Structure formats: structure tokens, C-alpha cells
């Protein structure tokens, strides 16, 4: 019983990162109908970008978040414009293959420049902790927690109240109907892809703070984003938050009571159960159109 509060706190802290990390994946899947298998590699690129900026310029990964988001935004727009857009009218399977190939290309390109050595971003507050009663709260995890929640809230408000956010929701809900009121889906796809990739790159900063990384981490990060989207549902920003924290609870508790090697098995098992009995997830709506 004594360890239970600590496990709950760790689950929430980890889950908040998973939620923010998965927002871009869920957004591009929900709006563009693209299951992007290269999404995890986008996150890893963000980690290496933060690593280089910290190594060369001494820039803290938290301060370089806007840079990562901006670079990711441009990268996402370019990928959508020159790759995905060309296959939008084809079978979804074609885009799936394209993202699979893109994932391999990106991870091996990173390996050419950085090798497969585990890299980490060393910041002064990495080892700091707060003690509240019997709880031990890592400063880094707390920072990631509050930042992830803040950025998630910002995306929610953007989608709900801005004109661009409403256009994204309109296209996701009814593409033909959106066209009738003057919204151009092609431009919305560019914006959604840019925002989704920007989120992936900036979450790479947070990932680099939480643990070491290699060029080949993208695969399992994509799996986690997929799990969060399935468990929480594609429909809303808050569904990613619920899915992320739920995944955090599964991983932390299973790792503690059954061992680290069982957490992926347990997560996949839960995903199958959710797909069987609640295929749209806990809070899944009709993509982002029902935000």
C-alpha cells in the first residue's frame, strides 16, 4: 500500500507525456486519414535537434521547443505537399507503405549522422527531485508534465476557437460540406500535417529529457502513439489525454508488479480488448469534427 501513491503519480506523469506525444499522430490520422508509421521517427528527429542545439549552442531543450515545433511544422508541410498529397486519391494501403519506407529512411539517415550510440541531453536539473511526504517527484518529470498539459490545452483551444481550428474540424467531419462553405481541404491538410509534425518534433525535446535515445527508437514510439489513439479514441484532444494516462498506468503498474518485459504485452492486450468491445475508444468521436 505504501508504494501505491508513488506508482499513481509516476503513471500520471508518464501518461501526460504519452498524451502530448500522441496528439500529432491522432490529428493526422483523424483529419488526413493517414496512419503515419514514420511518426515515431519524427519524435526522434526532434530529440536529436534538441540534442544538437543543446550541444552546440547550450540551448535548454525546454527553450528550444518553439524551434523544434517550427522546424517540424515546415517539415510536415513539405512532406504533405510533395509526398502524401500525391497519394491522397489512392488506397490508404499505398500511403501506409510510403510512411513505412519513410520511417526506415529517416532512422537510417539519423544513424549515418549520429551512429547508433545512445545519446542523452544532460541538463542541470536532471537529477533534482522534490520530496512531499513519502512521494519522490522528479523535477524533469514535473516540468514535462506541466508543459505537456499546457501545450495540450493550447491545442484544444486552438482547434475549438480559432478559424483555422474550426476549418480543420469541418474538413475532418465533412470534406464536401466544408468545400461548399469555401474551405479548401488541400490547405487544411497542409496545416494539419504541419501542426501534427510540429507536435512530434517538440515532443522529441521532452523525450530527450526523460531518457536516452537512438535513431531506431521511432518504431516503439509509433506503437505507443497508436495505442493511445486506439484506447482514448480519435475524436478529441481530451481523448488523447485519457488514452495517454491510461497507457501510463498500464506500463507503470505492470512494470512494477510483473516486470518491464510485460508492459508492452499488457498494453497490446488492452488495445485488443478495447477494439473488440469499444472500437472507437473511451472518448472517440467522429475524428476532430466533434471537438
Protein model, in words:
With 291 residues, this protein is an all-alpha fold. It has one domain (3-228). It has eleven helices and two strands. The chain has helices at 4-32, 39-57, 65-82, 92-114, 139-161, 163-173, 175-180, 185-210, 218-232, 237-257, 263-277; strands at 129-132, 135-138. A two-stranded antiparallel ribbon has the order 1-2. The longest helix is centred in the first third of the chain and has 29 residues, at 4-32. The radius of gyration is 19 Å and the shape is globular. The termini are far apart. The model is unreliable at 287-291 (pLDDT under 50).
Layout of secondary structure:
Elements lengths: L3 H29 L6 H19 L7 H18 L9 H23 L14 E4 L2 E4 H23 L1 H11 L1 H6 L4 H26 L7 H15 L4 H21 L5 H15 L14
Antiparallel strand pairs: 1-2
List keywords for this structure.
2 strands; Amino acid/amide ABC transporter membrane protein 1 (HAAT family)
Quick gist of this model?
71% of the residues lie in helices and 3% in strands.
Order of helices and strands: HHHHEEHHHHHHH
Rounded to the nearest angstrom, the radius of gyration is: 19 Å
Measured as a percent range, the helix fraction is over 70%
Task: Trace the largest sheet across and list its strands.
Answer: 1-2
Note the gap between the termini. 39 Å
Pfam families: BPD_transp_2 (PF02653)
Subcellular location: Cell membrane
GO molecular function: transmembrane transporter activity
Membrane topology: Multi-pass membrane protein
Amino acid at each position: 500500500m505504501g508504494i501505491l501513491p508513488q506508482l499513481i503519480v509516476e503513471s500520471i506523469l508518464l501518461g501526460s507525456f504519452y498524451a502530448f506525444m500522441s496528439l500529432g499522430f491522432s490529428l493526422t490520422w483523424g483529419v488526413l486519414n493517414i496512419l503515419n508509421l514514420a511518426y515515431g521517427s519524427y519524435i526522434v528527429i526532434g530529440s536529436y535537434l534538441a540534442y544538437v542545439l543543446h550541444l552546440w549552442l547550450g540551448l535548454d531543450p525546454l527553450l528550444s521547443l518553439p524551434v523544434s515545433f517550427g522546424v517540424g511544422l515546415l517539415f510536415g508541410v513539405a512532406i504533405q505537399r510533395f509526398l502524401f498529397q500525391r497519394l491522397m486519391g489512392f488506397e490508404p494501403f499505398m500511403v501506409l507503405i510510403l510512411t513505412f519506407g519513410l520511417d526506415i529512411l529517416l532512422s537510417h539517415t539519423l544513424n549515418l549522422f549520429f551512429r547508433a550510440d545512445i545519446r542523452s541531453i544532460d541538463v542541470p536539473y536532471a537529477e533534482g527531485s522534490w520530496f512531499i511526504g513519502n512521494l519522490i517527484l522528479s523535477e524533469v518529470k514535473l516540468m514535462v508534465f506541466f508543459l505537456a498539459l499546457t501545450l495540450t490545452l493550447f491545442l484544444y483551444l486552438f482547434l475549438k476557437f480559432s478559424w483555422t481550428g474550426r476549418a480543420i474540424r469541418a474538413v475532418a467531419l465533412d470534406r464536401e460540406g466544408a468545400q461548399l462553405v469555401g474551405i479548401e481541404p488541400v490547405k487544411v491538410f497542409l496545416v494539419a500535417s504541419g501542426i501534427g509534425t510540429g507536435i512530434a518534433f517538440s515532443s522529441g525535446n521532452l523525450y530527450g529529457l526523460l531518457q536516452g535515445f537512438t535513431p531506431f527508437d521511432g518504431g516503439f514510439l509509433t506503437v505507443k502513439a497508436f495505442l493511445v489513439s486506439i484506447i482514448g479514441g480519435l475524436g478529441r484532444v481530451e481523448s488523447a489525454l485519457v488514452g495517454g494516462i491510461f497507457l501510463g498506468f498500464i506500463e507503470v503498474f505492470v512494470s512494477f508488479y510483473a516486470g518491464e518485459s510485460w508492459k508492452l504485452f499488457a498494453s497490446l492486450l488492452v488495445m485488443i480488448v478495447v477494439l473488440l468491445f469499444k472500437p472507437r475508444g473511451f472518448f472517440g468521436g467522429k475524428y476532430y469534427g466533434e471537438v
